[in-house]
Each structure stands twice: as structure tokens, then as C-alpha cells.
Amino acid sequence: MPETTTATTTDGTAGADPAKRSLGTGPGRLLVTLYGVFTVAAASRSLYQLIAQFDRAPLAYSLSALSAVVYGFITFSLVRGGEGARRAALGCCALELLGVLGIGTWTLVDPAAFPDATVWSDYGMGYLFIPVILPVTGLIWLRRSRRA
């Protein structure tokens, strides 16, 4: 449940502290939904692959598990709200974007290193490029929510 506190506004009335409002409200609700879906998708896929097929592509499956952890942390931060959670989500979205760009480039340059795809392979092409769009959208939302 998001933290809320009351603060006295400039006119002397009590109201919700905007720094503690949930990042998952308004347009952020769509981000929470998408990150939640990607958390479940990446976690379930990588868990199965790590258990049943690890010897086939350990690097790819481990990177998919890492992406699930990143997605889960961002989801949690967006739901939690507050300035600390916003900063943590901002850092994770930046890390996610670097991961998508780095792994996406790596899979194109050295396809032999990835006998099976990760969530971030080919910039998320297997997921309609949502993995590369999501962190950009998240970074924009997190920057805008700071000013609100």
C-alpha cells in the first residue's frame, strides 16, 4: 500500500504530500500493469528454462531471470510511491534501458553467444519491442511525476 502523509499547504490546509503520492496512479497505472505482466512473464519463462534447459543456454536464461528481477523491483517501486521509491525506479529503469540496448546489440553482433533468446534479445523483438519502449516510457513518467 502506498505511503501517504498529510502536509500543510501554502493556504494552511492539510492535504496529501505530493512527494508521497503513488507513482502508480494516472498514466503510471499502465506502467505498473505492463511491468507486472513482464515480471510474471520473464520470471515464469526463465524459471522453467533454468530448471529444465539450463545446459542449453545458461547465459540467456540467467539474463532473462535478471530482467524479471529488474521488472519486479520497478513494479514494486511504482506501487510503493514516494521520493525514495521514485529514485530507485529511476535508477532501475536506466539500468534496464542499458541492459536492453547492451544485450540487444550483443545478440546481433554475436548470435552464437545466445543459442536461445532472452527477454532483451534483439531489443525485445520477440516481445514487440516493448522491453525497449518500457524503460524509456518509465524514465519519462518518473521525471514528470517528480514535478507534479
From TrEMBL:
Residues 1-17 have a biased composition (Low complexity). Residues 1-21 are annotated as: Disordered. It comes from the Bacteria. The chain crosses the membrane at residues 30-48, 60-79, 88-109, 124-142. Keywords: Membrane, Transmembrane, Transmembrane helix. This is Integral membrane protein. It comes from Streptomyces kasugaensis.
